[in-house]
Amino acid sequence: MRQAIAKDPIDVVVIDVSLPGGEDGYSLAVHAADCGLGVVLVTGHHDHFERLEKSGHNYLLKPFPMKSLLEAVDRALQKVKADCVVSAPR
């Protein structure tokens, strides 16, 4: 994700807080927010609720309906005042 943020025009990231490897979703969320991106954290572990609340990011507990994801992405974009524009391929 760090490489994608560095080279691709990204407005918002959806990150699971439980990731394989050494880095968790919370540290990636901090990095993404520091880069000016909107952040939505997701998890199926409801025991993460308190940390999600304290993170200051939009979040969803799995499972969730698509409408909830779209609303969370919209809130994240509004938070960073980003404007997604879909352009036609050249």
Question: What do these coordinates show?
Answer:
This protein has 90 residues and is an alpha/beta fold. The chain has a single domain, classed as Response regulator (Rossmann fold, 3-Layer(aba) Sandwich), CATH 3.40.50. Helix content is 42%, strand content 17%. The protein contains four helices and three strands, in the order αβαβαβα. It has helices spanning 2-7, 25-34, 49-55, 66-80, and strands spanning 12-16, 38-43, 58-61. It has a three-stranded parallel sheet with strand order 1-2-3. Helix 3 links the parallel strand 2 and strand 3. The radius of gyration is 13 Å and the shape is globular.
Query: Tell me about the biggest sheet?
Result: 3 strands, parallel
Strand percentage: 15-25%
- Report low-confidence residues grouped into runs of 5 or more: 86-90
Q: Which structural class best describes the helix and strand composition?
A: alpha/beta
User: For the record, what CATH class applies?
Assistant: Alpha Beta
How many structural domains?
1
Mean pLDDT: 87
Query: What's the architecture in CATH terms?
Result: 3-Layer(aba) Sandwich
The helix content is 40-55%
Order of helices and strands: HEHEHEH
Strand order of the largest sheet: 1-2-3
Total beta strand runs: 3
Dominant shape: globular
CATH superfamily: Response regulator
Key terms for this structure?
90 residues; alpha/beta; Rossmann fold; three-stranded parallel β-sheet; 4 helices; 42% helix; disordered C terminus
Write the layout of secondary structure elements.
Elements: H1 2-7, E1 12-16, H2 25-34, E2 38-43, H3 49-55, E3 58-61, H4 66-80
Parallel strand pairs: 1-2, 2-3
